[in-house]
Fold this protein.
Amino acid sequence: MTPGQILGAILLAMVISAAGAWQVQDWRYGGRLADQADQFKTDLGLVSAAAAKQARDETDKRLALEQQLAGQDQQHTRELSDAQRNQAVLRDRLATSDLRLSVLLDAADSAGGCNVPATTSTVGVVHAARRAQLDPAHAQRIIAITDAGDQGLIALRACQAYVRAISPLTKNQP
C-alpha cells in the first residue's frame, strides 16, 4: 500500500468513526427527547386533571351557595309576607273596632286631666293602671310605622345573612 492509500484509509476510517459517533449521539439525544416528551405529556395530564378537579370543586361550591341563598331568600320572603299579613289583620281589626290601642298614663301626672277608669274588661286585662284609648287614625299610623320597621328589620336580616354566606368566598379572592 502506498502512503497515499494509507492516508486515505486513515481519513476514511476517521470519517466513518465520526459519522458513527454522530449517529450514536443522535440516537441517544433522540431517546432523551422522547423521554422528555413522554414526561411532559404525563405532567400535562396531571396538571389538566388537577385544574379540572379544582373547577368542579368551585362549581360545586357556587351551586351550594346559590341553593343556600335561594333558601334564605325564600325564608325572608315568607317572613316578610307573614309580617305584612299580620299587619293587615291588625289594621283591619283597628278599622272595624275589634281592637283598640291604648297607652298607659303616668299616675303622677296631675296635668293630664284624663280620668280613664282602671277597671278590667272582658276584652283585656289592665291590672289597675290608668290607660287612655288612642284615636283609630293615630293607631293606624302607629301600625304603619311598626309595619315599615318590621319590613326594615326583615330586610336587614336578609342582607346580613347574604353577607355572612358570601364572606368566606370573598376572603379567598386575591
Summary: The longest helix spans residues 3-95. Residues 117 and 132 are 9 Å apart (CA to CA). The two ends are 82 Å apart (CA to CA).
